[in-house]
Amino acid sequence: MKERSINIAIVVVSIAIPVAVFSLFYILPHRNIPALNLGILPALNASLNFTTAILLILGLYFILNRKVHYHRMCMIAAFFLSSLFLISYVIYHALTPPALYGGQGIVRNVYFFILITHIVLAAVIIPLVLITLSRALQTRFDRHKKIARWTFPIWLYVAVTGVIVYLMLAPYY
Q1: What confidence score (pLDDT) does residue 19 get?
Q2: In Å, what is the CA distance from 15 to each residue of 10, 68, 79, 127, 164?
Q3: What is the pLDDT of residues 41-51, one digit of tens each?
Q4: Which distant-in-sequence residues (6+ apart) come within 8 Å of 154 by Cβ?
Q5: 3-class DSSP assignment, residue 24
């Protein structure tokens, strides 16, 4: 019963987050609050993504070298930073109009390819991370390892492409 409750919570969160983010861009009007200067948040978000990517790589290194404690610390920290990123991202996009990419030519196509794959995989990674984390916390390491083989590269891709999207979009903020 406990696993069923966890799975239901994972499904709810995995649906609620993309719906909330989608609504920020397409349904809810942006609210500019002049007293708030949120211009630092995109750089903060990129920093959180960059640090998450480093922690993921370190976590892989530690588990491959059987340093489980350090692996666990890196992965929990990566989860925490990804959660902070999500909160900051939602705040920024709820209160500011979207920045539009102004690049031209082939670089524009590259940007949109990276952006689209980043967005799709960011939605996919939510349940994968939650399932992987819950299996580890339940000490179901056989099942944790099976899904972590999928979670790790997708999560790393999302973290790295988040930084790339920021760097490509930064001149247009």
Answers
A1: 86
A2: 9, 31, 18, 9, 26
A3: 999 999 999 99
A4: 121, 124, 125, 128
A5: helix
